[in-house]
């Protein structure tokens, strides 16, 4: 017997491809542009968002019948901000090096519109288990795009992956640099992240024409 | 109770603030000891890194002395900690805990800051390590600079709070920090510091007598911040440096 029903597994799998929060819903673009110059930062951000969104959806789902509708957005903001502070403090105490890598990005999690979007669109109207799966699924879909964008930006922009030089040494002209290859510094700037995300949207839609809007 | 009722809304908001506030306050107080210890170890690791006591394995790695031995290594290599306050220089075994940002803020009010110096000894050589604090593009940058008695840089360590990953954040990469080693903060008898310069035609930084290192591509403002931070530090410590050089 499968652990998850077909309906439940769709909550995890759909956001990875055909209902991806970045490439289909076009949410969370700002943080995707800001932090994907390095693959490591993309991975760290993806893992942090999985934690915050999974747990945040559970908390909002648990409270869904008692939250006053007039201040629901404020409540959602407080929940996500509190979770982000918890993550930050625990990392500072028990994984200090990782917390330093995260420093820039923790604040960005609070402003991530996917998180608020899922609280509002799903967790406020569904049970705990399904909300948790929805949170994990959407965060994973977001993280997947971040990692793909981070991979290409770091590889083509710095010639490295996770900090390791994979294309040779640009100063001593070894590896690919020996045959005239140059790092594309433009890849490290935010506009190029937008172009890479655009290319991903293009590739995804040309592989699956059903995703193309009629009008 | 009706969830749209104003009284219910106010009560809910109050309860939420109390619950969330209590959880965060408890967490902050429970973890503050551990966090402060981590920050202390980090400072010791950074100071030791600047004077060449580190675990770097290859050309690209930035590896500190392990946390479990850093306190012991710090007492082994750092022989003296000094605090400069105006003309007065005193010894203080906890000088490394001085918050340089707060001390530099005192300058704005016309007060005299307490400036720490760490004197290190490694393989018979004496190092004078000074902390630095400045502004990058987005937020604070800081670091440590180890000098010998001739005012030649023996090593630096830079760090930042929120510089752009892949661009300004690269000030803490080996290839940038290593460029400073061998440069002098003196030009003749003038304390000029070291400038981060774009396109100085010396990308591997072979020229060590120009008070210049090659800039990071796409990080002009962070690079200027590093230049300004070194220049400010050199100005602040000038009298002390001069006393070492001429002793």
Automatic annotation (TrEMBL), chain A:
Enzyme class: translocase
Localization per Swiss-Prot or TrEMBL: Cell membrane; Endomembrane system
Alphabetical UniProt keywords: Cell inner membrane, Cell membrane, Ion transport, Membrane, NAD, Sodium, Sodium transport, Translocase, Transmembrane, Transmembrane helix, Transport, Ubiquinone
Residues annotated as transmembrane: 43-63, 75-95, 101-119, 185-203
Membrane topology: Multi-pass membrane protein
One example of a Gene Ontology biological process annotation: sodium ion transport
Predominant place of localization: membrane
Reactions mediated catalytically: a ubiquinone + n Na(+)(in) + NADH + H(+) = a ubiquinol + n Na(+)(out) + NAD(+)
Gene Ontology terms: cellular component: endomembrane system; plasma membrane
EC number: 7.2.1.1
Pfam families xref list: Rnf-Nqr
One MF annotation (Gene Ontology) recorded for this entry: oxidoreductase activity, acting on NAD(P)H, quinone or similar compound as acceptor
Keyword Transmembrane: yes
Function: NQR complex catalyzes the reduction of ubiquinone-1 to ubiquinol by two successive reactions, coupled with the transport of Na(+) ions from the cytoplasm to the periplasm. NqrA to NqrE are probably involved in the second step, the conversion of ubisemiquinone to ubiquinol.
Family indicated by similarity: Belongs to the NqrDE/RnfAE family.
Subunit structure: Composed of six subunits; NqrA, NqrB, NqrC, NqrD, NqrE and NqrF.
Official protein name in the record: Na(+)-translocating NADH-quinone reductase subunit D
Organism of origin: Muriicola soli
Source species taxonomy: Bacteria, Pseudomonadati, Bacteroidota, Flavobacteriia, Flavobacteriales
Gene: nqrD
Automatic annotation (TrEMBL), chain B:
UniProtKB keywords: Cell inner membrane, Cell membrane, Flavoprotein, FMN, Ion transport, Membrane, NAD, Phosphoprotein, Sodium, Sodium transport, Translocase, Transmembrane, Transmembrane helix, Transport, Ubiquinone
Catalytic activity: a ubiquinone + n Na(+)(in) + NADH + H(+) = a ubiquinol + n Na(+)(out) + NAD(+)
Family listed: Belongs to the NqrC family.
Annotated TM spans: 6-28
Membrane topology: Single-pass membrane protein
Single annotated GO MF: oxidoreductase activity, acting on NAD(P)H, quinone or similar compound as acceptor
GO biological processes: sodium ion transport
Gene: nqrC
InterPro entries, sorted: FMN-bd, NqrC
EC number: 7.2.1.1
Subunit field text: Composed of six subunits; NqrA, NqrB, NqrC, NqrD, NqrE and NqrF.
Residues that bear FMN phosphoryl threonine: 220
Role: NQR complex catalyzes the reduction of ubiquinone-1 to ubiquinol by two successive reactions, coupled with the transport of Na(+) ions from the cytoplasm to the periplasm. NqrA to NqrE are probably involved in the second step, the conversion of ubisemiquinone to ubiquinol.
Primary location: membrane
Compartments, record wording: Cell membrane
Record GO cellular component, one term: plasma membrane
Main EC class the enzyme belongs to: translocase
Name of the protein in question: Na(+)-translocating NADH-quinone reductase subunit C
Presence of the UniProt keyword Cell inner membrane in the record: yes
Origin: domain of life: Bacteria
Pfam families: FMN_bind
Ranges where the FMN-binding domain occurs: 136-237
Cofactor(s) in the UniProt record: FMN
């Amino acid at each position: 017997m499968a652990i998850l029903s077909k309906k439940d597994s769709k909550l995890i799998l759909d956001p990875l491809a055909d209902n991806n929060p970045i490439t289909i819903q076009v949410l969370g673009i700002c943080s995707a542009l800001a932090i994907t110059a390095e693959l490591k930062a993309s991975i760290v951000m993806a893992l942090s968002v999985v934690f915050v969104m999974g747990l945040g959806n559970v908390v909002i789902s648990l409270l869904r019948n008692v939250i006053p509708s007039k201040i629901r957005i404020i409540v959602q903001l407080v929940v996500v901000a509190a979770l982000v502070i918890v993550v930050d403090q625990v990392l500072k105490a028990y994984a200090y090096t990782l917390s330093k890598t995260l420093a820039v990005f923790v604040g960005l999690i609070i402003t991530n519109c996917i998180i608020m979007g899922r609280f509002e669109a799903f967790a406020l109207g569904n049970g705990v288990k399904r909300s948790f799966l929805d949170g994990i699924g959407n965060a994973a879909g977001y993280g997947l795009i971040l990692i793909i964008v981070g991979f290409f930006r770091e590889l083509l922009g710095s010639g490295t992956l996770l900090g390791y030089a994979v294309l040779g040494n640009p100063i001593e002209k070894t590896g690919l640099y020996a045959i005239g290859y140059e790092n594309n510094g433009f890849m490290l700037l935010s506009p190029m992240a937008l172009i890479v995300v655009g290319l991903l949207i293009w590739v995804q839609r040309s592989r699956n024409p059903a995703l193309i809007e009629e009008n | 109770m009706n969830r749209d009722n104003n009284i219910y809304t106010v009560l809910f908001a109050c309860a939420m603030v109390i619950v969330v506030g209590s959880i965060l306050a408890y967490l902050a107080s429970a973890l503050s000891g551990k966090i402060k210890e981590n920050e202390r170890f980090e400072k010791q690791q950074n100071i030791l890194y600047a004077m060449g006591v580190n675990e770097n394995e290859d050309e690209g790695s930035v590896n500190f002395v392990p946390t479990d031995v850093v306190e012991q290594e710090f007492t082994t290599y750092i022989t003296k900690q000094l605090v400069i306050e105006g003309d007065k220089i005193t010894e203080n075994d906890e000088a490394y805990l001085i918050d340089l940002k707060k001390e530099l803020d005192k300058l704005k009010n016309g007060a005299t800051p307490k400036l720490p110096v760490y004197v290190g000894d490694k393989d018979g050589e004496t190092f004078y390590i000074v902390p630095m604090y400045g502004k990058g593009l987005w937020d604070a940058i800081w670091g440590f600079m180890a000098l010998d008695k001739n005012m030649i840089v023996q090593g630096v360590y830079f760090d930042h709070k929120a510089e752009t990953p892949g661009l300004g954040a690269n000030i803490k990469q080996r290839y940038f920090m290593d460029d400073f080693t061998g440069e002098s903060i003196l030009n003749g008898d003038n304390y000029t510091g070291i400038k981060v310069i774009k396109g100085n035609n010396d990308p591997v930084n072979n020229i060590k007598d120009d008070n210049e290192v090659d800039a990071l591509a796409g990080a002009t403002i962070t690079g200027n911040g590093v230049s300004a931070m070194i220049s400010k530090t050199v100005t602040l410590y000038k009298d002390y440096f001069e006393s070492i050089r001429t002793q």
